[in-house]
Amino acid sequence: VNRIRELPQNSKIVATHTDSPDVLIWDVEAQPNRHAVLGAQDSHPNLILTGHQDNAEFALAMCPTEPLVLSGGKDKLVVLWSIHDHISSLAADPGSAKSPGSGSASIKNTSKVGGDGDKSVDGPTTGPRGTYQGHVDTVEDVQFCPSR
What we know:
Elements: E1 3-7, E2 10-17, E3 23-27, E4 47-49, E5 60-62, E6 68-72, E7 78-82, H1 83-91, E8 97-98, E9 105-106, E10 109-113, E11 119-123, E12 125-126, E13 130-132
Parallel strand pairs: 4-12
Antiparallel strand pairs: 1-2, 2-3, 3-4, 5-6, 6-7, 7-13, 8-9, 10-11
């Protein structure tokens, strides 16, 4: 994990950047017990945010007023997601399985996480609300309006 950010509206939800194009969303209450227990189950993200075309390792921000995630990466893009977009899409598909800790349904997809390890992880995914182009080099930091 290169960067971790807490969702201001719910401190049990965090976003992480790894050596991959994806941003991983975790409900820490829904993850298996990770207190040095030999044989504990593997943790899996509750939501995978897709949209970067290359690794996005460091630039990560959470909106202080809404459940929005902002990310920058080596692909010179800034990508914006709404966690509510995922919840809304689940409401439209009442037959899908329930996601741990979400209180709503989940759609299973596969996404690549882990960079060079090229690991596949099953988990619900959601695409970006917006992708912003125009940078000429890696985007290394992003921030929501600091005055609000």
